[in-house]
């Protein structure tokens, strides 16, 4: 989890490979209306995100029901969003990719071809509720290299 530009897709893909898990990118589950809003620089509301989060939760539940290890890259900005995902997939481990607004903005400015409008970063940061201590999230700074992030995530997951 994390805001746009935190590296969810890159890390999620590589983490799934290391875990021997299936992977889904939450971006691919967004309804077209959400993609159009974000492309136009219009922040999503909780109502906009609700159908998308239900699809994310459904995907996780289906994998868990089939006994398939899974990794989902999903912003999961608010605790209520993560609670919905945990309800669908009990035992869900959350890896939070944490970065400064400056670093995130720099990454977004160098990411051509993605539908997310970089002007939306501030709205995502405003909506972001960092995981609380009681959520047992694995918090990893995005200043590390992808390999270091994967290594830290794997070590934390093996302890969980």
Automatic annotation (TrEMBL):
InterPro entries: P-loop_NTPase, Therm_gnt_kin
Pathway where it operates: Carbohydrate acid metabolism
A Pfam match: AAA_33
Source organism superkingdom: Bacteria
MF GO annotations: ATP binding; gluconokinase activity
Known EC number: 2.7.1.12
Organism of derivation: Catellatospora citrea
Catalytic activity entry: D-gluconate + ATP = 6-phospho-D-gluconate + ADP + H(+)
Keyword Signal attached: no
GO biological process: D-gluconate metabolic process
The keyword Cytoplasm is annotated on this UniProt entry: no
GO cellular component: cytoplasm
Swiss-Prot/TrEMBL keywords: ATP-binding, Gluconate utilization, Kinase, Nucleotide-binding, Transferase
CDD domains recorded: GntK (cd02021)
Similarity-based family: Belongs to the gluconokinase GntK/GntV family.
Organism phylogeny: Bacteria, Bacillati, Actinomycetota, Actinomycetes, Micromonosporales
Protein name (database record): Gluconokinase
């Amino acid at each position: 989890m994390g805001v746009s530009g935190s590296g969810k897709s890159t890390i999620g893909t590589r983490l799934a490979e290391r875990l021997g898990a299936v992977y889904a990118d939450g971006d691919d589950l967004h309804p077209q209306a959400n993609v159009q809003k974000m492309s136009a620089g219009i922040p999503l509301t909780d109502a906009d995100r609700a159908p998308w989060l239900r699809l994310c939760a459904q995907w996780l539940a289906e994998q868990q029901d089939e006994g398939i290890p899974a990794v989902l890259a999903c912003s999961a900005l608010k605790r209520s969003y993560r609670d919905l995902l945990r309800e669908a997939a009990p035992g869900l481990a959350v890896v939070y990719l944490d970065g400064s607004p400056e670093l995130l903005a720099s990454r977004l400015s160098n990411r051509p071809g993605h539908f997310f409008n970089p002007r939306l970063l501030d709205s995502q940061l405003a909506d972001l509720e960092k995981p609380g201590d009681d959520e047992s999230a694995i918090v990893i700074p995005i200043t590390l290299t992808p390999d270091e992030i994967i290594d830290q995530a794997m070590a934390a997951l093996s302890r969980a």
